[in-house]
Amino acid sequence: MIGKFWPTLSSTSIHDIVHTALDSGINWFDTAQAYGGGQSERALSDALNALNISPPDAFIATKWWPVLRSSRSLEATITHRLKQLRGWPITLYQIHQPYSRSTIALQMKSMAILLDQGFIQCAGVSNFSAAQMTEAYKALRAHGHSLVSNQVRYNLLDRRVENNDILLAAEDLGITIIAYSPLAQGILTGKFHGGLAKPRGFRKWDPRFRTAQLDQSAHIIRLLHTLGEKYQVGPAEVALNWLIGHPSQRVMAIPGATSTTQALQNAHAMQWTLSSSDRSALDHTSISA
After folding, report:
1. Can you give the pTM of this predicted structure?
2. Domain limits of the chain?
3. Greatest Cα-to-Cα distance within the chain, rounded to the nearest angstrom
4. Nearest partner of 223 among 259, 193, 196, judged by Cα
5. Which are the catalytic amino acids?
6. DSSP states of 80-110 as a string?
7. Model confidence over 117-135: pLDDT tens digits?
8. N or C: more exposed end of the chain, with fewer CB within 10 A?
9. Residues 151, 180 contacting (CB under 8 angstroms)
C-alpha cells in the first residue's frame, strides 16, 4: 500500500536520478522494506551497481517494518534485506514505526546483535516520540551501542518536533533528526498554490491539498518565493536550506526526487545559506501544526 502512494519510475529514470544526485554531492540514500515491499531497495542498489558505485562512495539507510512483528523478526529478516540490496551494506538500519509486538528494550537487544555481528553499521528509529526515543537510546547503550537517529516528519508547515520534546531530547542525547517530508509532499515547492499543479494520486485525499488548507499556507509560500528571488533559487531550495541549517546542527533532510531536475535542486540547497534574519523571518511566518 505504501509503495503505491508514489508514481512508478522506469529503471532508466531511477538510474539517471541516482547518477545526478551522486554527481551533485549527494551520497546518502534512504529507503525501506515497506516501500513497494522491497522494490525501492532493489531499484536503488541496482542503480548504484549499474553506475559502478561501491561502498564507501555511497551509503544506504533502510528500515525494518515492525507492525505485527516481534523483535526476533529484526534478526530473522536481515539476510533478506541484504539480498534485496544486492549485497550493499546497511549503513543505517531503522525501526520504521513504534508498533512492534515486542518492547523497545527487546528491539534494541536485537539491534545490538545485528551491530555486534556486523550486519549493520548504525541503528536508528523512525516516528518515535521523545519518550520512546529516549527509552531506545538507553536500552541500546546498555548493550554498548548508541542510537544515532530518529526519522520524523519535519518541515516549515509541520514543526511539532520543536514542541513535543523530540528535538530537545535529540539534542541532549546527541541523536540526529532525519526530516522526512521536508517539502510537505510538495506543498512547499509552491506549485500547488495558484493552480500551478493539481494534486494527483494519494494527494487527492490529503486534506493539506484542499483549497482551504492551501490558502492557510499561502503566506509562507509567498515568503519562500520572495527569498528564492533574493538567493536566485526556487521555493523548495529555501525550505530545504531552512531545515539543514538548523541551529542545532543535528537536522538532515531527505527530499525525494522523481526527476533529475528535482535531484539537482535538492543538491543545490546545500551550496548556500540563509542569513540569520531571513531564517528568523521563516521561523515567525511558518505554521506550527
Report:
1. 0.94
2. 1-153, 184-247+258-289
3. 54
4. 193
5. 35
6. HHHHHTTT--EEEEEE--S--SS-HHHHHHH
7. 999 999 999 999 999 999 9
8. N
9. yes
